[in-house]
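Justification of computing resources. Each target in the renewal requires a structure prediction run like the one illustrated here; the chain below, 337 residues long, is used simply to show the kind of job we budget for.
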Amino acid sequence: MPAMAWEYVTAGAGDELTVRWNQEAYQRIRLRPRVLVDVSKLDTRVTLFGQELAFPILLAPTAGQKLLHADGELATARGAAAAGTAMVLSCFSGTSLEDVAAVAKSPLWFQLYVQPDHGFTRELVQRVEAAGYRALCLTVDTPITGARNRETRAAVKLPPMPHLEGFKVDGREGHLHPGSAQVFSGVLDAALSWKDVEWLRSVAKIPLVLKGVMNPDDADRAAKSGVAGVIVSNHGGRNLDTLPATIEALPQVADKVAGRMPVFVDGGIRRGTDVLKALALGASAVFIGRPYLYGLGAAGETGVMQVINILQREFQMAMALTGRTSIASIDRSVIWA
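Resulting structure tokens:
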């Protein structure tokens, strides 16, 4: 990977404490094994919004993948298909949603930022639905961006973003300013509120998931608002530093939601044991980000597939070695309290 791309992928906000905590929190959680359980057959399948996946491991949305590899999001979509998992395409991708849909052979979701121009956003949602995407992930934790100091030092310049073509800011074509505190100035909507969630639900025909929910009270309101799910996420530690690790926030969110909708989690997942821990603490599935980007940068679509396959195999090992034979059998009793 070029040095600038490496800095962009690995960087977090401020002193990057939350980036580190996301991983360290998983490392502190201990597993409780069970022995003499018949684990000759393991069922890792999960059904999300009517679509069955072989494993509860999905690809989170990440921007500007052409920084890492010439094929960018196309390679990621092919790698996801080869590994049998779903991919969430970023609104800030370097490849159009239609081009990604043309090569994808596994389910696609689309990550959305609601722009101040709701007409523009509505047209984008209609394009997403027409291309066959299965769900919308609305990022709700980024009304503005955080202190991305390392990105600034690295002078990160993101590739063109086709989903923003034609977007107007004060009558001018919308554009991004990577590498500064105003990185998405004019594109993100600082006035975003629950009324916009209600509006988006009224115009979208596919399930709406809120990405970036850490507070249980917000999760409760999301469930009451009728959205299809929430992703417990701190934006990979890239926005507000010193937020807790997502795996620490997950149990409180899951308890508050109490089964009313799926709860997902991202951030810090590096091993199959991490996937098991997340499911034990209330997640329906997990999303990975940086790991598959490292695979993309190293070996394109093959690298993406290999990263996913490693996590899938390790997850199976973790299930077998804790005596869990199905997703339904994974609960908090697998955690050594």
